Amino acid sequence: MTRTGEQTEPTEADRDAQPAVDPASSIESVRETGQIAPVRPHRSDLHCITIIGQIEGHLVLPPQNKTSKYEHIIPQLVAIEQDPSIRGLLIVLNTVGGDVDAGLAIAELIVTMSKPSVSLVLGGGHSIAIPVAVSADYSFIAPTATMTIHPIRLAGLVIGVPQTYEYLDKMQDRVIRFVTQHSRIKPEKFRELMTRTGELVRDVGTVMVGAEAVEVGLIDQVGGLSDALAKLYELIEARSAADAADTRPRR
Q: Which residues are known to be catalytic?
């Protein structure tokens, strides 16, 4: 049953009307997604997108890498925006980061969606995953989840000329500008965390755990799945009330 406001318990007639799950489809679900299809299919007015492993961009990563391909995520976001039955979006992140352009493209799409969105960082939301996390209307981080802030890197052949470093600096400014515009952290603080030395053994930057990301203003709140869903429904109701107020006839 679709939840709108308070959720009601399904009646016996509702349970009987629901189709039985085909055992063959359950086996196929395990093979393809690693999960068993729910015994009683539940229609929801929310959509969940998971971003895991590495965010894959213009280059195809090796087959042993867990990846989230931006050419898969972007069409999903467009479809969610167009689907009238979907009222809100939950983004779950457990990623080491990845391609800068791909991560920023996903973040820019999320931040320009008309439907309410909430992000939840589980495990890790590192590097370019930070703009994706803050692009939602409200962000959560699990108490044990971590976020690594570090400078932009280039992979492959690097030409040792001043223009290369100017290009890197411009890319870094894009990330800093986006993150600071969509969170409470100040640009000076974010840049200081990005270039901090002495914390990472073989790198510069900062690792933030749970509440630390909230304290500096990067993430809105420490919480888990139930908190994220409750906040998302709160945002949906607030948006619905605002839309209803806009459509009332004025004297």
A: 127, 150
